[in-house]
Amino acid sequence: MMPNYPKRFPFAHLPTPIEKMERLTEFLHGPTLLIKRDDQTGLAGGGNKARKLEFLVAEAIAQGCDHLVTVGAPQSNHCRQTAAAAARAGLGCSLIFKGKQGEGLAGNLLDGLLGAHLYWTEEDETAAVMHRVLSQLSIMGRKPYAIPLGGSTVVGTAGYVLAMQELMGQLTSQNINVDVIVHATGSGGTQAGMVLGARLWLSGEHLWGQRQQTRRGYVHAGGRLGHGHGRPLGLRAVQRHGSRHRER
Ligand SMILES: Cc1ncc(COP(=O)(O)O)c(C=O)c1O
Q1: Over the stretch 154-184, which tens digit does the pLDDT of each residue have?
Q2: Is 173 noted as a catalytic residue in this protein?
Q3: Which of 185, 196, 215, 225 has most ligand 1 atoms within 8 Å of its beta carbon, as the pocket-test mutant?
Q4: Ligand 1 pocket check for 186: Cβ under 6 Å
Q5: pTM recorded for the entire structure
Q6: In the chain, which residues fall in CATH 3.40.50.1100?
Q7: Maximum distance among all Cα pairs of the chain, rounded to whole angstroms
Q8: Which of 3, 30, 139, 246 lies in the 20 to 30 Å Cα band around 225?
Q9: CA dist., res. 241 & res. 213, Å (int)
């Protein structure tokens, strides 16, 4: 079954290759480890957010928006990729960072170079600053498009449903069998898309989402997407946090 994907602005470098991690496999004395190189999705340095942003930017343009606004940690991959996606699509961009200006300068150095406006705030004021930036842009005659933390909306999640379709095609054509797929999880959109994609196309494999920091929001977006396509979720996904894990 093919889902009805939302509109997509295709700027990511896809498909990303699958490589064998021979030296790590040998070092650990197995099991055989493979990696899907989603660090090579393009824009400003690659990473998982490029896939979500293809759908988010397409929706922004379809809604007549001309400016992306989002939020993240000072070194946020999501913010850096949003700034790059905005530049690629000819949109403005405002980024709201949780933290103090100058703290943890890293990937965010690029954000300014990519033309984004940067705002800094304490964590519990993020929503208020987001609201203020959106209002100011509207007053200035711009039409902003708000992207929540990590781009984890139903539309953004479609990026990882598509990624699972891509992965399934590669595994089949390269005659590779995998038992477990492990991925990082934070705001949850990647996991939600992968759970839905696995439900649609894979059989028998287990998904392990290795949690970073956030504590909620996981399968919700994918569940809504799944219901939208008439297909409820039922796959066993495991969220791991350090030595603890929870099954859903
Ligand atoms: C490189 C990378 N992979 C995976 C994730 C997790 O993605 P998500 O926020 O969709 O759970 C993040 C989140 O920050 C990330 O930066």
Answers
A1: 999 999 999 999 999 999 999 998 888 888 8
A2: no
A3: 185
A4: yes
A5: 0.86
A6: 65-151, 153-247
A7: 61
A8: 246
A9: 9
